[in-house]
Structure of Casein kinase I:
Amino acid sequence: MESNYVRVGGKYVLRKRIGGGSFGDIFYGSNLETQADVAIKLESVNTTPPQLINEAKIIRSLKGEGIPKVYWSGSEGNYNIMAMELLGSSLEDAFAANDRRISTKSACMMCDQMVQRIETIHNQDYIHRDIKPENFLFGLNEKESQIYIIDFGLSKKYRESKTKQHIQYKDKKSLTGTARYASLNAHQGIDQTRRDDLEGIIYVFIYFLKGALPWQGLHIKNKTEKYNKIMTTKMNTSVGELCKGCPSEVAVLLNYCKGLRFEENPNYNYMREQIASIARKENFQLDLIFEWSKFNKGRSSVKKAEIEEIEVPVQKGKKTKKIRKKQAIGKSPKNIETEQILAPAQAEVKDEDCETVVGNSWPEFFDREKIFSFRQNKSRIAFQWKWKQKKQMQWKEMEVFA
């Protein structure tokens, strides 16, 4: 019954959590009127600074191939919410599913599309500022080979839309983005511009070609020290050493991105020509036929949730009895309240250097067990996500097909 699901925006229902991060959660959902599958992002209204409403505004303003659709956004109860197009697996998912070994052809086709998506965004006055393979997703069905760019929560304008006046050079900035793929300029506190997005793409390209980057897997507990170590490792690793074993064009691309000036307009066609040169030399076509086509075909990005059943305290006379249910009951999130704003996806982050960071303005979270609490007709429903416990109770697995 649809009444057994939380409803938002009047016609969208949340069905299963499929991901999230430090700043919110993503649910698989559906449109009750059209029965279409959607992705629904939730962010607490207490998040400082808020991202989701601004992200929805940015995505709506962007036009072009590989930009997801936003169906609805707004605030209800204690949450900022956005319903958007449901997409397929991320580039990181595809990479991991192939044992972190993919062909040069697939790496080139992914990089070529990433450059195109970033050019589309840059041409409309924005920079992304969080380049990583998790933020590029394949489409579904007939668009299974098309790559989309997502997560514009950290995006900002690098120039004024009407006058095209570029932002002024600033430094002493905190690191914003994902340390593993961040540019050296970003590490060094220089305000990011178009060149930084492109440098991040080339790091992703090298990551796909070689399977890892030299600054991965550093065992340093203090995050500031770890990010500084990543920066020094990047500084001390020459382009030649970093690109060893890769086609020569990769070093050309990295040197090109590193050499761009603060306000310089990148030559995206030149970058794509370098990728095409690899294809010609290695005798393959950039035909968008990936080796994992079957992996993504006809499937959504919905993952099998690993969540406990929920305990519902129900008042019965003077006693409180706990019963077990499979889902929260409620037609709207008006009474949803959050005890703690947490980062449930931390268990999903393989390396801290692949975790998005936003300067020093974001709070640190230590208790990550309780995620949301819902109140409905004096009943309190506590959800608890426990990711890697032996005695784990799971919902009946639900396969979702587009």
Q: What stands out?
A: The domain at 2-86+300-384 is CATH 3.30.200.20 (Phosphorylase Kinase; domain 1). The chain has ten helices and 17 strands. The CA atoms of residues 205 and 375 lie 46 Å apart.
